[in-house]
């Protein structure tokens, strides 16, 4: 094995890890603000994939332009899901929100399976390869990582530089105190949920530009998001990006040392161990 | 002893017995197949109810015990030529052992963290078994046809598994009622209501929770062996299907968590509905209704969670005081 191959898998892993990270960021944001584990996350990732696929293959729209539309639809879907399934049970025991989001997952996946079947899809989109020294990188993956970083930057500016962002952070810190300060908490919760699902849809859309997928693929990435969430600290959006990088590197480098099928075993064992030792995550969760 | 005279227990037992004995008296193979599915679901729901309904710990990984038990039993039969009853006990023991080893560790986690950990455990075991050579790796274990010969051929073996599942379902119900009315059960319910208060009142919570986890794990372990013996082969994706865990959760929510009769009614109702949907020839647009099975299950669950979180039995008990004497 030469150094070039190792370096290529490492960088490939990093690029994909950032995209995983943005999916996990959505999950983390929702957990951080309202203590809900969103089990419909995978379904939204799948919808993002199909959104970009249909707009690109059906209407011939550029995938990155399609991504903007998909993001917007993800935001609206999230607000809708919040209004239908979550607002009634937001203060009920956590089982209710787990099962409510899971039933949304079932409904979306069920409708998706009926409409699209489970045959694998591929956008067939390519931007060629980029050669950097000894590295050969896929253009789509580079752009995907770039888009992720831009979205993260926008999210941070939004959370830390705008009034609404401040409201979100306030509700996340202490909902009742925020309400006493006159913050419309139910609207803020709906918006946060919408942003969380928007990030899932963006991640799905980006993954669709370089991997083939089915309507069920979202579940795989949802589980990766859980692992990343725990790695980076549940409720800590920036931690998700770091967690994504760690997972990406593991996925890039581990297959060089062991058969590919052992990689998920390592990932899930790591997940359980971190939960047991430090449930707030390696990097520390929400304070 | 007094608790065994409660009519609620006999109502539940009669329902399970009636369901279980009908195919035996009619000797009808079609009825037996539906009966098998329903009793399997009932036993899964009853066993999950011990940790979820009584103790208040929501496990999304109940199927891990079913899968691991099934694999252990199939391995014992295939490699060591163990007879079915021994394999069933072996499957139950393997599941109980896993629950015991996991219990002390993951039951320290509360709420959503526990739920997440159970998903992780199921995935970890599934991916591990896919790589585990003695269990046949990704292709799993397939039984030789000669295995069925010692039970008088495939047809008799099917009846044998049916008697097995009837026995387990009846046992599960009695066992669940025994726990519910015992001092141990009181400990579990006090943990559900307020774990810290329970501990202050002298419930040794880590041991009690672990024991409850073991009690809820060995039944699916035995059921897995029966199911995969009947099926003839076992594969990682069938054995550790997360959806099966969720279906058990839905059945409990439908019937009413923490009640004795709830899981029975919930499992029966869910399986009947599923059967109706699968055989229905109603069309929605150009698609048959059965393609929407998942959507309908999801809608049903959402409605229950949003509007009747106590489930059918729980709701009836709240609504009609006199029913509390015959429904537990």
The share of residues in helices of chain B is over 70%
CATH-defined fold name of chain B: ABC transporter involved in vitamin B12 uptake, BtuC
Q: Which blocks of ≥5 consecutive residues of chain B have pLDDT under 50?
A: none
| Helix proportion of chain A | over 70%
What is the string of helix and strand elements of chain B?
HHHHHEHHHHHEHHHEEHH
Secondary-structure blueprint:
The complex is a heterodimer of chains A (287) and B (328).
Chain A: H1 3-34, H2 41-59, H3 63-86, H4 94-116, E1 129-132, E2 135-138, H5 139-161, H6 163-173, H7 175-180, H8 185-208, H9 217-232, H10 237-257, H11 263-277
Antiparallel strand pairs in A: 1-2
Helix pairs in contact in A: 1-5, 1-8, 1-9, 1-10, 2-3, 2-4, 2-8, 2-9, 3-8, 5-6, 6-8, 9-10, 9-11
Chain B: H1 7-26, H2 29-54, H3 63-80, H4 84-106, H5 112-131, E1 141-142, H6 146-149, H7 153-181, H8 183-193, H9 195-200, H10 205-231, E2 233-234, H11 236-239, H12 242-255, H13 261-279, E3 283-284, E4 287-288, H14 293-307, H15 311-319
Describe this structure in words.
The complex is a heterodimer of chains A (287) and B (328). Chain A is an all-alpha fold and 287 residues long. Chain A is built from eleven helices and two strands, in the order H-H-H-H-E-E-H-H-H-H-H-H-H. In chain A, strands 1-2 form a two-stranded antiparallel ribbon. With 328 residues, chain B is an all-alpha fold. Chain B has one domain (2-278, 289-325): ABC transporter involved in vitamin B12 uptake, BtuC. Chain B contains 15 helices and four strands. Chain B has a two-stranded antiparallel ribbon. Chain B has a two-stranded antiparallel ribbon with strand order 3-4. In chain B, helix 3 packs parallel to helix 5, helix 7 (153-181) packs antiparallel against helix 10 and helix 13 (261-279) crosses helix 15 (311-319). The model of chain B has no long low-confidence stretch (mean pLDDT 92). At the A-B interface, helix 4, helix 9 and helix 11 of A face helix 5, helix 12 and helix 14 of B.
């Amino acid at each position: 094995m030469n150094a070039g191959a190792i370096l290529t898998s490492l960088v490939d892993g990093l690029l994909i890890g950032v995209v995983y990270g943005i999916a996990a960021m959505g999950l983390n944001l929702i957990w951080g603000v309202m203590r809900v584990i969103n089990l419909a996350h995978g379904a939204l990732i799948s919808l993002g994939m199909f959104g970009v696929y249909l707009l690109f293959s059906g209407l011939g729209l550029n995938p990155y332009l399609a991504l903007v539309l998909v993001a917007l639809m993800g935001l609206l879907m999230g607000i809708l899901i919040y209004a239908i399934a979550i607002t009634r049970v937001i203060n009920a025991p956590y089982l209710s929100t787990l099962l409510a989001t899971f039933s949304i997952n079932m409904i979306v996946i069920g409708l998706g399976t009926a409409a699209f079947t489970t045959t694998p899809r591929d956008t067939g989109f390519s931007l060629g390869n980029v050669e950097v020294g000894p590295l050969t990188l896929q253009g789509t993956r580079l752009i995907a990582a770039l888009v992720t970083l831009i979205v993260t930057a926008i999210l941070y500016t939004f959370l830390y530089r705008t009034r609404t962002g401040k409201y979100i952070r306030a509700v996340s810190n202490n909902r009742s105190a925020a309400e006493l300060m006159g913050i419309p908490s139910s609207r803020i919760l709906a918006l946060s949920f919408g942003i969380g699902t928007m990030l899932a849809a963006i991640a799905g859309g980006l993954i669709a530009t370089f991997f083939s997928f089915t309507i069920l693929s979202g579940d795989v990435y949802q589980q990766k998001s859980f692992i990343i969430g725990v790695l980076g600290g549940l409720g800590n959006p920036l931690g998700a990006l770091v967690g994504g990088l760690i997972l990406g590197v593991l996925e890039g480098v581990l297959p060089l040392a062991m058969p590919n099928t052992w990689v998920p075993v390592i990932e899930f064992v790591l997940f359980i161990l971190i939960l047991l030792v430090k449930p707030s995550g390696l990097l520390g969760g929400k304070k | 002893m007094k608790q065994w005279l409660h009519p609620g227990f006999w109502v539940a037992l009669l329902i399970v017995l009636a369901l279980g004995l009908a195919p035996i008296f009619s000797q009808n193979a079609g009825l037996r197949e539906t009966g098998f599915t329903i009793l399997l679901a009932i036993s899964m729901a009853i066993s999950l109810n011990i940790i979820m309904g009584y103790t208040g710990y929501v496990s999304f990984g109940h199927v891990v015990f079913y899968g691991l038990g099934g694999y252990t039993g199939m391995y014992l039969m295939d490699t060591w030529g163990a007879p079915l009853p021994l394999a069933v006990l072996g499957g139950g023991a393997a599941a109980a052992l896993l629950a015991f080893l996991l219990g002390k560790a993951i039951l320290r986690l509360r709420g959503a963290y526990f739920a997440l950990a159970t998903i992780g455990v199921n995935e970890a075991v599934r991916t591990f078994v896919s790589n585990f050579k003695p269990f046949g790796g990704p292709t799993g274990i397939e039984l030789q046809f000669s295995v069925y010969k010692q039970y008088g051929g495939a047809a008799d073996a099917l009846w044998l598994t049916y008697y097995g599942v009837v026995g387990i379902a009846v046992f599960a119900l009695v066992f669940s009622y025994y726990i519910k009315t015992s001092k141990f059960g009181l400990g579990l319910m006090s943990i559900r209501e307020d774990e810290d208060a329970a501990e202050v009142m002298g419930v040794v919570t880590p041991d009690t929770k672990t024991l409850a986890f073991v009690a809820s794990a060995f039944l699916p372990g035995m059921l897995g062996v029966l199911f995969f013996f009947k099926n003839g082969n076992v594969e990682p994706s069938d054995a550790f299907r997360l959806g099966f865990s969720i279906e058990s959760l839905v059945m409990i929510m439908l019937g009413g968590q923490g009640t004795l009769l709830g899981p029975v009614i919930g499992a029966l109702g869910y399986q009947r509905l599923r059967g109706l949907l699968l055989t229905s020839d109603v069309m929605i647009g150009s698609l048959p209704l059965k393609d929407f099975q998942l959507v309908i299950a999801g809608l049903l669950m959402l409605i229950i969670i949003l509007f009747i979180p106590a489930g059918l039995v729980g709701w009836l008990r709240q609504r009609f005081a006199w029913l509390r004497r015959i429904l537990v």
